[in-house]
């Protein structure tokens, strides 16, 4: 059976001890859409994307990805996950890092070589392929993490604040690449604080204090909060009481 829903989140609640971080979240994300998760710091965005990626579990409720309840190892291989903090081997070069991830994803030698060249080109790091990661700047590490997430052509890309520390020119080209991937059928879930990025998403969800307070297209969110910009909508939903 064909299903158009890539991610289904059903009544997810997450507690860390007595601290309730996600409160009864239900959400559907369609195939081949760029879906943005917005919300103030501490709202629960990272916690939610980790549960969707299968690297954390909900206290109650459940999540399905590509028709399978998470966490599931086979499905995790079809996801590209870029965490908020870079998971890179500092003592290795960029190429060695990507070789390592490529092996984990089961890419053959020639495939690895080809994909490493392609993803490094996408993130603008071709010239720095043989440089050790400990010589990389913060922004370069972000770009390398994105390259690693793209390596195995995942059907679902989960990006936790992917463009922090990346200059506007490169940010624009990365977003163009995300749009191309979407046109090719990749589903992309992205957390962001950057409003012009949020505007590029097909749909957005706003989280506050672990609760889902609004879901819709950028224009719907502006309309429903009587705002002319997303920034205003974000402030209305995210901050003002
Ligand atoms: N492992 C953990 N143990 C205890 N509390 C945690 C843990 N992980 C997250 N939290 C708490 O959960 C809340 C939500 O954190 P989370 O990182 O999901 O927020 P966020 O919306 O991604 O914030 P930011 O935009 O700053 O990244 C915070 O109060 C945080 O302190």
From TrEMBL:
Q: Which Pfam families match?
A: ABC_tran
Query: One GO MF term, please?
Result: ATP binding
Keyword Lyase included in the entry's annotation: no
Q: Where are the transmembrane segments?
A: none
Q: What is this protein called?
A: ABC transporter ATP-binding protein
InterPro entries reported in the protein's UniProt record: AAA+_ATPase, ABC_transporter-like_ATP-bd, ABC_transporter-like_CS, P-loop_NTPase
Question: Is ATP-binding among the key words of this record?
Answer: yes
Q: What is the lineage of its organism?
A: Bacteria, Bacillati, Bacillota, Bacilli, Bacillales
Q: Which residues form the ABC transporter domain?
A: 7-234
Q: Which UniProt keywords apply?
A: ATP-binding, Nucleotide-binding
């Amino acid at each position: 059976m064909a299903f158009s829903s890539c991610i289904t989140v059903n009544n997810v609640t997450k507690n860390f001890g007595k601290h309730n971080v996600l409160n009864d979240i239900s959400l559907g994300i369609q195939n081949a859409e760029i879906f943005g998760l917005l919300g103030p710091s501490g709202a629960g965005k990272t916690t939610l994307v980790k549960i969707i990626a299968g690297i954390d579990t909900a206290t109650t409720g459940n999540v399905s990805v590509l028709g399978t309840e998470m966490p599931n190892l086979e499905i995790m291989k079809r996801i590209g996950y870029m965490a908020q903090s870079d998971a890179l081997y500092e003592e290795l070069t960029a190429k060695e890092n990507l070789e390592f991830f490529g092996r984990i994803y089961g890419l053959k030698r020639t495939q690895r070589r080809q994909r490493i060249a392609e993803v490094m080109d996408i993130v603008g790091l071709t010239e720095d392929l043989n440089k050790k990661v400990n010589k990389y700047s913060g922004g370069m590490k972000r770009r390398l993490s994105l390259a690693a997430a793209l390596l195995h052509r995942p059907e679902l890309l989960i990006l936790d604040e992917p463009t922090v520390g990346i200059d506007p020119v490169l940010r624009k080209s990365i977003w163009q690449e995300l749009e191309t991937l979407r046109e090719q059928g990749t589903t992309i879930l992205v957390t962001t604080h950057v409003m012009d990025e949020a505007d590029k998403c097909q749909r957005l969800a706003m989280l506050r204090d672990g609760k889902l307070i609004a879901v819709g297209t950028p224009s719907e969110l502006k309309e429903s909060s009587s705002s002319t910009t997303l920034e205003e909508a974000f402030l209305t939903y995210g901050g003002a009481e």
